[in-house]
Amino acid sequence: MTDYDKKFREARETISRVDKEIAKLFEERMKAAVDVAEYKKVNGIPIEDMVRENRLIETNSSLIENDEIRSYYVSFLKNTMNLSKDYQHKIIDGTRVAFSGVKGAFAEIAVKRIFPDSVPVSYPDFKSAYKAVEIGECDVAVLPIENSYEGDVARVMDLTYFGSLHINGIYDMGIEQHLFGTQSAESKTIKKVVSHPQALGQCAEYIDEKGYATEEMVNTAVAASVVAQKQDDTLGVICSLEAGNEYGLKLIDRKINKDSANTTRFAVFSRIARDNTPDLNNFIVLFTVRDEAGSLGKAVSVFGECGYNLKALKSRPSKDVIWNYYFFLEGEGHLTPEAEKTMIEKLSEVCTNVRLVGRYPKEQSI
Questions:
Q1: Phi, psi angle pair for 180, to nearest 5°
Q2: Which of 116, 163, 234, 267 has its CA 20 to 30 A from that of 325?
Q3: Is 334 in contact with 281 (CB distance < 8 Å)?
Q4: Considering the chain, what is the average pLDDT of its residues?
């Protein structure tokens, strides 16, 4: 036997041994993926997490000492991650996600982008969708909390304050409004447009220019269904492409909203709070302040004293006491268990009803 024959045999034995070890480790990894998928399901977390994937690739590829094969290992890692995600998608398939509206609503579009394997479940209003998660009818809810043009969604903010759910993620979705009508309608035949108040507000300049009358409806997709049912050439609807196509309407004019950067922030609500991991570097705190001079200023100063950046502070009537308000605060920075305890204790000195309602990573665009 030549040296080449010996090295060839030894190489094949090494490959067989390593393949057996890889098979055991692969099975172990995929079993762990089951736990990850189940955690993501109950916490309302999407399967895709490119930030973590890129971090793992960077960290693990540095373990390869041979520069020549490092790129092959990166491909190996990516393929393994893709298989893991495929398996997680299979496990998480069927997650019930509540949203407010009907088929084609912007909220349903957001659900499908955040949870592509889920079953979107329609509810007539924000409260019904929120309560569906509280009572266990659905696993999570996706609800809008703010629009860049029309501002906060007050009803969802109130549900957040008075309800029990946690915010485990926030996603930004660009909103484009379009004008639809019946198949025989034209821009000149339309006399009135129907839509959600926010959509009408976003397209106010266009509506005024055309001289259309307006009528408010509960959401854009419901408005589209009404136009489809009435088959009135004088009636138009402002809605998404998905809603217009869903109800068999004719596209008359594209992108009619004034603000081309129009964006809605959607929050994912879950019964369970996410584990406190280092990547959760954003948080939301709800509180009311004591009826004492300077209480709000003292409360706000706590966040700076604790080393956190104040991103937003909003107020809403608390409804339980006249002229009393609760505050919705968004902060930036990782809350370690010790830092969280310190912050809550300091807030409690000048506040009442302090509640950490959510931790989440950097906002993602969908």
A1: -120, 155
A2: 267
A3: yes
A4: 86
Render pLDDT for 90-131 as a digit per residue (tens, 0 to 9): 777 678 899 988 788 888 989 988 888 788 999 988 999 999
Three-state helix/strand/coil letters over 107-133: HHHHHHHHCCCCEEEEECCHHHHHHHH
Neighbours of 188 (CB within 10 A): 8
Q: Using CB atoms within 10 A of its CB, is residue 262 exposed (0-12), middle (13-18) or buried (19+)? A: buried
Look at residue 51 and give its three-state secondary structure: helix
Structural contact between residues 364 and 284, judged by C-beta atoms closer than 8 angstroms: no
State phi, psi for 106 to the nearest 5 degrees.
Answer: -60, -35
| Per-residue DSSP letter, 258 | S
CA–CA dist 124, 224 (Å, integer)? 15
d(CA 61, CA 281): 26
How would you classify the pairing of strands 140-147 and 96-100? parallel
Is residue 260 very low, low, confident or very high in pLDDT (cuts 50, 70, 90)? low
User: What letter does residue 137 receive in the DSSP assignment?
Assistant: S
State the first-to-last Cα distance of the chain, in angstroms, to the nearest integer. 62
- φ/ψ of 197, rounded to 5, equals -55, -40
Q: How long is the chain? A: 366
Q: What is the pTM (predicted TM-score) of this model?
A: 0.69
Per the CB < 8 A criterion, the answer to whether 97 and 111 are in contact is yes
Would you say residue 325 has pLDDT above 80? no
Q: Which residue has the tokens 């029990």?
A: 164
Dihedral of CA 104/110/116/117: which sign? negative
